[in-house]
Amino acid sequence: PYWTINNTTNKDQRDRVLGMLRLSYDFAPWLKLTARGGTDFYTEQRLRFRAKGTYQSQNRNGDIEEQVIRVREDNYDLLLNGMVDLNKDFSLGYNAGTSHQKKFYRLTGNTGKEFIVPNLHVINNTLTNSYLFDLQESEINSVYASGQIAFRNYWFVDFSARNDWSSTLSPENNSFFYPSVSTSLILTEMLGLQSDVLDYVKLRGSLAQ
Q1: Distances (CA, A) of 77 to 28, 115, 148, 191
Q2: 17 three-state secondary structure
Q3: How far is Cα 159 from Cα 118, in angstroms, rounded to an integer?
Q4: Which of 138, 121, 139, 140 is nearest to 129 (CA)?
Q5: Distance CA 189, CA 109 (A)
């Protein structure tokens, strides 16, 4: 264990920034607009090496690996929502919006095997070394809506729909749609039932894709 403590290293350092801005405005009691934008990005540096003589390394001659990782994710949303009484029996609550998400990931680095000079832990001091690289980028654009129609506070119908367009799919088939609908009926409220034994009965059904 003392060899592991004194002759192997595995460390990393991350510099990170997160930020978010949100603005909202009430146009009317039944109409509110909210806009949001946020970002999260960081740079991470990693260093790992096993000194010459370490049992797990190739030919016990040690190895080293250095990486620099850059990650960024941006999110933007625009949302309309509100609630309105259609008449004395019906009310409607709704949400409708759109969003954009973008992700970026990039890894660069080097790995080396078999140190030439002991205790000099740099890539150029290895017999064989290779380059590391990975790049991933993606975007998703979305539109969505949801709402609830209520009748006399005992019958409710909820619905939602969303469509996404993803850059990770082929351009000819990069769109997918998923809706849902559910309804619930509070029988005790509808029938005016009052009982010490049975004070609440509700029926509910839903369908989603």
Answers
A1: 20, 52, 21, 43
A2: strand
A3: 68
A4: 121
A5: 66
Q: What is the pTM of this model?
A: 0.78
Contacts (Cβ under 8 Å, ≥6 apart) of 6: none
Q: CA–CA separation, 44 vs 13, rounded Å?
A: 6
Question: Tokens 């009430």 correspond to what residue?
Answer: 26
Which DSSP string do the residues of 143-190 spell out, in sequence order? Answer: EEEEEEEEETTTEEEEEEEEEEEETTS-GGG-EEEEEEEEEEEEHHHH
| Residues 161-198 pLDDT 10s | 999 999 999 989 999 999 999 999 998 888 888 777 88
Q: In angstroms, what CA-CA distances link 91 with 11, 71, 80, 110, 151?
A: 58, 45, 17, 63, 7
Distance CA 94, CA 30 (A): 9
User: Residue 126 and residue 200: Cα distance in Å, rounded?
Assistant: 75
Instruction: Return the amino acid letter for 134.
Output: D
Q: pLDDT (tens digit, 9 = 90+) per residue, 89-145? A: 999 999 999 999 999 999 999 999 999 999 999 999 999 999 999 999 999 999 999
